[in-house]
Design brief:
heterodimer, A: alpha/beta, Enolase-like, domain 1, five-stranded parallel sheet, B: 521 residues, mainly alpha, Alpha-Beta Plaits, 22 helices, 61% helix, 3% strand, flat, FAD (chain A), oxidoreductase activity (chain A), FAD/NAD-bd_sf (chain A), FAD-dependent oxidoreductase (chain A)
C-alpha cells in the first residue's frame, strides 16, 4: 500500500489527507511538531481574547483521525533524503515514504533588527507564539505596553488581541497608511481611523530601529528610526509578513526559491515530492496572483487539487476568481476579483468608491476604464455573497450591471439596513461629475 | 495551556455598585422568604424588583455602551460564571434548589394551603396579583413575574450587547412582547373576565403545553361557552395549521427564538451560558434519541389521557373512544406516508429508525385500545401516566435541569434534549421548510466561533467549512452563529427549497471544471 507522508498539519495538509482518504485506501501520515491535532490558525487570536478555548479551534474531534485511518505523528523533521525516500526526524528516527508532501506553512519574517531575539519579542503565527504571548502579556500589570511592528493583517489582529486585555498598544507601520500596498486609499484611511478609535497608538510612516534589552535579556523598549524616540514596552510583536517555513530542506535536493519551487501540478523538481500551501512557490505566478500565496483558502484549494493528482487523476492547480476576507477590529472585509491599491494598480483600472457617513462601511468597485468591465470589489462592513460575484466575474459583467444589481449580492443578516440605493445614487452622481 | 486570569475581565466600579443594588433587591426577597413581615408589601415588592432591574440595567449599560459596536465575547472563557467555574456552579446550585422548592415544596415559599393566607415570599407578591386579577398570588404567579422580569432586564442587556445587529434586537423585542402579553398579562385578564377558564398561555402549544387536553382543562374550556370553545379550537388550530405554515415559511425559529417563553429565557438570561452546550457527536446522538423518546411519550400519554376520559365521560363529548383512537392512528399514518413518499430517499438510514418509531407508537395505541379500561391504560392507572409525565418531563426536565443547569449544560438543554414541541417543529424544519443557514461560498476559515456559540450544540463549522448550508432539525434560528462569524460566512434565510441542502466536496473558488468533476460524483 502506497504511503503518503505529509509534513505539516495545517489546512493544506489536512485537506489533502481528507481528500486522499475519500478517494483511496492509501496509508497516510501527517507530521507536525506544533500541535497534536489540526487547529485553525486564524482562530488563535480568539483563544487569547477568551472567546474560545484552544480545543474549540480544532475542527475535528480527536477520534476523527483514527476513524479515517490518518496517522498523526508529533515530531520535528530535520531533513529529507529524497534518494532513499526518507524523512529524518530530529530524534534521529526515520520514516519511509512513497509520496512526500511539504505543507509546512510559514514563519514570521524577521529583518535583522537589533534585539529581535530578546525575551518578549515574538511573532503571532504558531501555537507556541500564543503560549509565549500568554506568558509575556497576560495582563496590563505584567505588560505595561506592547509595540507591534508591521502593519498587515496579523499586526492588526495582534493589536485587537492585546487591546482585549486592556494592554496599551503602539502600532508601528512603515507605510503612510495602514496596509495601503493592498487597500485603496479611501479604505485604508477608514481603517486608520478605526484603529485609532480603538485607542491604539498608530504610528504611520514609522520604522523600527532597534529593540532594547534590560539587564536580564527582556525587552525594555524600542527605538524608532525616524525620530530616535524610545518607547518603553514589555512585549514586541513582529508582524511584518511571513515567509515560507522551508529552512529544514536547505540541505536536501529539493529546489528552493523563497519557498519550495513547484510547477502547476504542485510537483517539485524531485519525483514523488510535492509542496502545497504557504510554503509552495510557483515557478510563474498564476494570473495576477503572487507566486507564494499565504492565504487560508489557497492552501485548502491546493490540498483539494493535489489529492486528485496523488490519487491518479493528474490535475493542475487552477484557482478560480480571487477572493479573500479579514476583519479589522469590528469591521469585516471581503474581496472578490481584483481591486488593487493606487500603488499597485495598472493604467486601465478605475475605482468607484462609496463610504457610509458612520465611517465603518465602504465599498470599492474596480472596473476597466475603457471596456467598463467589472474587475472586482472590496467591501467593508457589508457582507456580500461569494457565489454572486463569482458568477458576475465569470459572466464578465460591466460595472453598471453590478452596481444596479448589488442588492442580489447582499449577505447581511435579516433586518439590516440596506445601502444599495445610496450606493447607486452616489454612483450616478459620480458619473454626472465625470 | 494555563491561562492567568486577565485583568480585563474584572468589573468596573460602576458595575460593582450596580451589582450591589441588584443584590439589595434580591436581599429584600430573601428577607420575605425568611418570613420577615414587611409593613407595606406593595412598596417592598416594588423596591425589590426595581433594585434588581436597575442594577442589571446599569451593569449592562456600563458593560456595552462605552464600547464600540461589535462582538462582545472578550473574556467569556476566563470568567468563572460563564466557563463552569466556581461561580457557575454556585449559581447553578442556587437555581436548581429554587426550582425544586418551586415545583415540589411551594409551602417553603409561603404558599398558603387550605384557604390559609400566603406568607413569606409568595405573600410579598400578593399586592401585584391583587392588582392584576383580584386574587392572592400563587407560586406560579411569583415564578411568572420573576420570569418576565428576567426576560426584560436580560433582554435589555442582550440588545445592548448586539446593538449593531438588528436581527437580534427585533427578535428580543418579540420574546419580550410574547412573554409580557401572552404568558403573563392575558391569562390574568382572562381570569378577571371569566374565572372559570383554565390558565391558558395562548402561545404555549401542545405538546409543550402538555396539560391542555387534560380533562379539567378541556372541561373548563367547553363549559365556558364561545370563548372557551374558541380558545380550545385555537389550541388545536395552532398545532395542525398555524404552526406548520409558519414553520414552512420561516423554520422553527418563528417559535423557538421569537415566541416561546422557554426560548425567551434561554436567549436573554441564558445568553451568558450558550457556549457551554456540548458539540460532541455523542451529544448529538443522545439528543436525537432523547428528544424523540420524549415526543413519543407525550403523544402516547396525551392520547391515553383523552382516551380514558372519553371512556367514562362519553356523554359529555361527541367523540367516542373508537373514533378517537382510529383518527389518531389514521393521522399518524398519513403523516408517515407523506414523509416516506416525498423524503424517504433523503432520509436514508434515518427512515428505518423513523419507521420503527412509528410502528412502536401505533402498536402502543392498539395495545392501549384493546387493553385499556376506563381506569387503566397499559395496565396502570391512566392518571399515573400523566402525573409521571408532568413530574419527570414537565417539572424535572424542563425546569430543574433545563433552567437550573444553565451554567453547567448551557442555556438550551431542555429545548435540545427534551422539548417535544421542538422535536415536531424540527422534524418539519428538516424536511418541509424554506429555512436554512446559507454558507457563503468558500469564505469559511474554520475558526469555530459559530460552533462555540451555538446554544443547540450544532457543530456549525462542520458544515460551513465544507461550503454546505446548515439544515438541522435542532436549529432554533437564534442567528448568533452568523453574528459571531468574523468573515461574514453565515446568513439565516428563507428561500427556495431547491438547493437548500447542498453537499460540496470542492468549495467555491477552486477551478470550475474540477469543482464539477468532484461534486457530480
Amino acid at each position: 500500500m502506497e504511503h503518503v507522508v505529509i509534513i505539516g498539519n495545517g489546512i493544506s495538509g489536512v485537506t489533502l489527507a481528507r481528500h486522499i482518504r475519500k478517494q483511496s485506501e492509501k496509508k497516510i501520515t501527517i507530521i507536525s511538531s506544533e500541535s497534536d491535532y489540526f487547529f485553525s490558525r486564524t482562530a488563535l487570536m480568539y483563544v487569547f481574547m477568551g472567546h474560545m478555548k484552544f480545543e474549540h479551534t480544532q475542527p475535528y474531534e480527536n477520534w476523527f483521525w483514527k476513524k479515517n485511518r490518518i496517522d498523526l505523528k508529533k515530531a520535528f523533521v530535520k531533513n529529507v533524503d529524497t534518494d532513499s525516500k526518507l524523512v529524518i526526524f530530529s530524534s534521529g528516527e526515520v520514516l519511509k515514504y512513497d509520496k512526500l508532501v511539504i505543507a509546512t506553512g510559514s514563519k514570521p519574517s524577521k529583518f535583522g533588527w537589533p534585539g529581535q531575539d530578546l525575551k518578549g519579542v515574538m511573532g503571532m503565527y504558531h501555537k507556541q507564539d500564543l503560549e509565549n504571548l500568554e506568558k509575556y502579556a497576560p495582563n496590563n500589570q505584567i505588560c505595561k505596553r506592547a509595540v507591534i511592528v508591521g502593519g498587515g493583517l496579523i499586526g492588526i489582529e495582534l493589536a485587537e488581541m492585546l487591546h482585549s486585555r486592556n494592554i496599551p498598544v503602539t502600532f508601528l507601520v512603515r507605510e503612510d497608511s495602514f496596509w495601503n500596498g493592498v487597500l485603496p486609499q479611501g479604505e485604508s484611511a477608514m481603517i486608520n481611523r478605526h484603529i485609532k478609535n480603538n485607542h491604539i497608538d498608530l504610528r504611520l510612516s514609522t520604522n523600527l530601529k532597534s529593540i532594547n534589552a534590560d539587564e536580564n535579556g527582556f525587552v525594555k523598549s524600542v527605538t524608532i528610526e525616524n525620530t530616535g524616540e524610545e518607547i518603553a514596552c514589555n512585549v514586541v510583536g513582529l508582524t511584518a509578513g511571513v515567509s515560507p517555513n522551508v529552512d529544514f530542506l536547505k540541505s536536501s535536493k529539493i529546489e528552493l526559491g523563497r519557498g519550495v519551487k513547484v510547477n502547476r501540478f504542485l510537483e517539485t523538481n524531485i519525483k514523488d515530492v510535492y509542496a502545497i500551501g504557504d510554503c509552495a512557490e510557483q515557478h510563474e505566478a498564476i494570473g495576477k496572483r503572487r507566486p507564494i500565496e499565504a492565504v487560508w483558502y489557497t492552501g485548502r484549494m491546493m490540498g483539494e487539487t493535489l489529492a486528485q493528482t496523488i490519487c491518479g487523476n493528474p490535475m493542475q492547480y487552477n484557482p478560480g476568481h480571487w477572493f479573500n476576507s479579514a476583519k479589522f477590529f469590528a469591521i469585516e472585509y471581503q474581496t472578490y476579483g481584483w481591486v488593487f491599491s493606487e500603488k499597485m494598480k495598472s493604467q486601465f483600472e478605475e475605482h468607484f468608491h462609496w463610504k457610509h457617513k458612520d465611517d465603518t462601511k465602504c465599498i470599492t468597485v474596480a472596473y476597466h476604464k475603457e471596456t467598463k468591465k467589472f474587475l472586482g470589489i472590496n467591501t467593508f462592513g457589508i457582507r456580500m455573497r461569494h457565489e454572486t460575484f463569482d458568477k458576475w466575474l465569470t459572466e464578465q459583467r460591466e460595472i453598471d450591471y453590478v452596481i444596479q444589481h448589488l442588492s442580489e449580492a447582499n449577505f447581511d443578516p435579516e433586518f439590516y439596513k440596506h445601502y444599495e440605493r445610496e450606493i447607486l445614487e452616489a454612483y450616478n452622481h459620480q458619473l454626472q461629475i465625470v | 495551556m494555563s491561562l492567568a486570569k486577565p485583568d480585563a475581565t474584572d468589573i468596573s466600579t460602576k458595575q460593582k455598585v450596580a451589582l450591589a443594588i441588584g443584590i439589595i433587591g434580591l436581599f429584600i426577597m430573601m428577607l420575605a422568604f425568611l418570613n420577615f413581615d414587611f409593613p407595606n408589601r406593595a412598596v417592598s415588592l416594588g423596591l425589590s424588583l426595581a433594585a434588581i432591574s436597575i442594577g442589571t440595567v446599569i451593569y449592562a449599560r456600563d458593560a456595552y455602551l462605552n464600547k464600540l459596536e461589535g462582538i462582545k465575547n472578550d473574556g467569556v472563557w476566563f470568567k468563572s460564571i460563564s466557563s463552569r467555574g466556581l461561580w457557575g456552579w454556585i449559581v447553578g446550585i442556587i437555581l436548581t434548589t429554587f426550582y425544586i422548592v418551586l415545583y415540589f415544596l411551594p409551602t417553603y415559599l409561603g404558599l398558603g394551603e387550605n384557604g390559609n393566607p400566603n406568607s413569606g415570599l409568595i405573600s410579598l407578591f400578593d399586592p401585584l396579583s391583587q392588582l392584576l386579577s383580584g386574587r392572592n398570588a400563587s407560586q406560579w404567579f411569583v415564578y411568572g413575574t420573576l420570569y418576565t422580569v428576567a426576560i426584560f432586564i436580560f433582554g435589555y442587556k442582550f440588545m445592548l450587547k448586539y446593538k449593531h445587529n438588528r436581527y437580534q434586537q427585533v427578535r428580543t423585542l418579540s420574546v419580550m412582547f410574547f412573554q409580557l402579553g401572552f404568558a403573563f398579562l392575558i391569562p390574568e385578564f382572562m381570569y378577571v373576565m371569566n374565572s372559570d377558564l383554565p390558565y391558558y398561555d395562548l402561545k404555549s402549544i401542545w405538546p409543550l403545553n402538555y396539560y391542555i387536553f387534560d380533562e379539567w382543562s378541556v372541561n373548563g374550556f367547553l363549559s365556558n361557552g364561545t370563548i372557551g370553545l374558541g380558545l380550545i379550537l385555537f389550541g388545536i388550530l395552532s398545532i395542525f395549521v398555524i404552526s406548520p405554515i409558519l414553520t414552512y415559511k420561516y423554520g422553527k425559529r418563528w417559535y423557538c427564538s421569537w415566541v416561546c417563553g422557554c426560548g425567551g429565557l434561554a436567549e436573554t438570561a441564558g445568553d451568558s451560558f450558550r457556549q457551554l452546550s456540548s458539540k460532541k457527536l455523542s451529544a448529538w446522538k443522545l439528543e436525537r434519541w432523547l428528544v424523540h423518546i420524549v415526543l413519543v411519550f407525550s403523544v402516547v400519554m396525551t392520547v391515553a389521557m383523552v382516551y380514558t376520559y372519553l371512556g367514562y365521560d362519553s356523554n359529555n363529548f361527541w367523540l367516542t373512544r373508537d373514533v378517537f383512537i382510529m383518527a389518531v392512528i389514521a393521522f399518524l399514518s398519513v403523516v408517515f406516508g407523506i414523509v416516506l413518499y416525498f423524503k424517504g430517499k433523503e432520509l436514508g438510514k434515518d427512515a428505518k429508525i423513523g419507521a420503527i418509531g412509528f410502528f412502536v407508537v401505533i402498536l402502543l395505541l392498539l395495545v392501549l385500545h384493546f387493553t385499556g379500561t376506563t381506569q387503566e391504560v397499559f395496565f396502570i392507572q391512566g392518571s399515573t401516566l400523566r402525573s409521571a409525565y408532568g413530574l419527570y418531563i414537565g417539572s424535572i426536565f424542563s425546569g430543574v435541569i433545563g433552567t437550573g443547569f444553565y451554567p453547567i449544560l448551557g442555556s438550551r438543554s431542555w429545548c435540545r434534549f427534551g422539548c417535544p414541541m421542538a422535536a415536531i417543529l424540527g422534524f418539519q424544519q428538516r424536511l418541509f421548510s424554506k429555512f436554512r443557514i446559507t454558507t457563503n461560498g468558500g469564505q469559511c476559515i474554520s475558526c469555530g466561533n459559530c460552533s462555540t456559540y451555538c446554544e443547540m450544540g450544532i457543530d456549525v463549522r462542520a458544515y460551513a467549512q465544507k461550503g454546505e448550508n446548515i439544515v438541522r432539525s435542532s436549529c432554533v434560528g437564534c442567528g448568533i452563529c452568523s453574528a459571531v462569524c468574523p468573515r461574514g460566512v453565515l446568513k439565516l434565510e428563507n428561500a427556495s427549497e431547491k438547493g437548500r441542502i447542498n453537499s460540496n466536496d470542492i468549495l467555491l473558488g477552486n477551478d470550475v471544471n474540477l469543482l464539477d468533476l468532484i461534486n457530480q460524483k
